[in-house]
Amino acid sequence: MTRSLRGQKLLIATHNKGKLEEFRELLGPHGVEVVSAGELKLPEPEETEDSFIGNARIKAKSAMAATGIITLADDSGLSVNALDGAPGVYTADWAGPSRDWMMAMRTVEEKLQAAGATTPEKRSAQFNCTLIVLWPDGEERIYVGKAPGHLTWPPVGAFGHGYDPVFVPEGSKLSFAQMSHEEKNRISHRARALELLLKDLL
What we know:
Layout lengths: L8 E4 L4 H11 L5 E4 L15 H16 L3 E10 L20 H14 L9 E11 L5 E12 L15 E3 L11 H7 L1 H13 L1
Parallel strand pairs: 1-2, 1-3
Antiparallel strand pairs: 3-4, 4-5, 5-6
């Protein structure tokens, strides 16, 4: 069945203002009206799965059940090769209940130092983004984007959110947090997943 989001109202199942801003910038030009779970004051469901798609599906189903609006949910995270893919699906958990991202970045750095990962080639990592679009009739579409790079220390840059100040994408000398929204939105994991979504649904 052919699906399109053009001219539709889309609920973004997130309470993260940084993510919402990225989605608005990327979807707005296509005539998609965006509202977030945070703006509607929807509860945040407990993420109990051990995969990005599993947790994205939990968020999408919860928001859909509460509103009946076409819902886009994502689960994204940082996977560090020297840490066997951690923090991965637990990326936000490493920031604690208060979402202290400096603490999270410091935890990653301490673990990298303990592992002897002190050079860029030993500090390779990637951001992963899994998107799911869920319709009221139960149909879903899944899109996956990845942004490879390496981790730097200390954190640098004032933009972005989460682990952006310590992540340098492949082919760049700047961290995500040093890039403008426009620059980051050309190469980020979320932008790459959304590119697939746009080709499919817009």
